[in-house]
Please model this.
Amino acid sequence: MSEDRQKRFGRSACVKCGTCQTVCPVFSVLPEEASAARGKLALAEAVEQGYLDESDAYREYLEKCLLCGACEEACPSEVQTLSTMLDARKRMAGNVGIRPAKRLILEQVVGDSRLLDLALRTGRTFQNLLFKRVPADSGIRRRVPLPLITPDRTLPGLAKTFFTDRFSGQVATGKGPRVGIFAGCMTNYLYPGTGEKMIGLLTREGVSVFVPSEQVCCGMPALVGGASETARELACKNLEAFEKYGLDAVVTGCASCGGNLKENYRELLLEAGIEEKRTESFLSKILDINEFLHRIRKVDAVREPEKREDGDLPILTVTYHHPCHLGRLQGVKDEPIALIRSLPRVRYVPMGDNERCCGMGGSFSLEHYDISKEVNDQKIARILESGADAVVTSCPACIMHIRDGLIRNGRGDIKVLHMAELLERYSLEEEGEGGEPRYGRMGVRG
Model:
């Protein structure tokens, strides 16, 4: 076994202390040894050393993981659990195989942007036949039995107009940096309003905004599902889509997309034969919307909520949920809170366990919704304890799952907002003399 493998799998690395069990969301619901990192590492080590054969049961154990990174962050031995799980899933996919239906979706649909787009356009056409609206326009629920979707689950409907259909190419011109928006699948197909608000926020800062129409899925679903070749192909397509614009920054509003771009693209692109200089040039430009705005606004002051006056927006009390792939994978934790606390007419209240996973985990919440739902209920309890009118986060997937949990718990009245939505609505317009934005006046199309 290589030195790297020994560090990750060897007994000297994982001392079996059980710290991972105390922070693992899945273990809190399913308290079995194989549910937490310690058990999964032992299984992966046994397979690596030839003491255990890979099997369908082994695949099931590997897939019962949210990949939230809580175990890696808490591990006193600094065991690299996330990369270990991805490596194990990759090897498992090559030996045991990916389930046929899942392989079809990951390799043929997600891996082909034209087919994915066609499938979702078709789904948009027929969604009213298969799903019904729930009260207050909070989302949709199935009308008829559908695989992987339970009758008590509330989902967002596919958007009437997809984000990249409305915005593509250069959509705003200003005197500031050239900034590209990496939309991600959920913003593109489910929450285009989030992308539109990102454009509004960036426009207010006076930058030139670009939305490359050639961008595709970030590849996270394929990577975590073991379809690494598809993930590499998608990474190369995104590199080519963005680098042609000569951008100063690539901004994303999806924690999972941003985490995948920053954490996994280096290896994927290098494996695909992309030279290191080109790879590093692209990766150095990737920023979450919280990072970008925090840097450009130089937020340091904390305003007290202003008293409401006639005609003013009301004071909104908000709490914040830290997406796992933003806080742990990207290290962006302080910036969102600073931005919230700088807003007028907004009061921030902390949430207990605000960094704990909401239970979404991408396909995990489809394949293991029973576990995902219980993890989500723990998050909902902390939100309710905060007494906030709204919960804010920076991940469309978290928004979908938390909104579902609030509705299931009878609290659909609590708003779930993306940071871009909160900032776009409650930010003061920081304009210079003559009403000019920070970098000069811009023209916007869309």
In short: Confidence is low (pLDDT under 50) at residues 5-12, 429-437, 439-446.
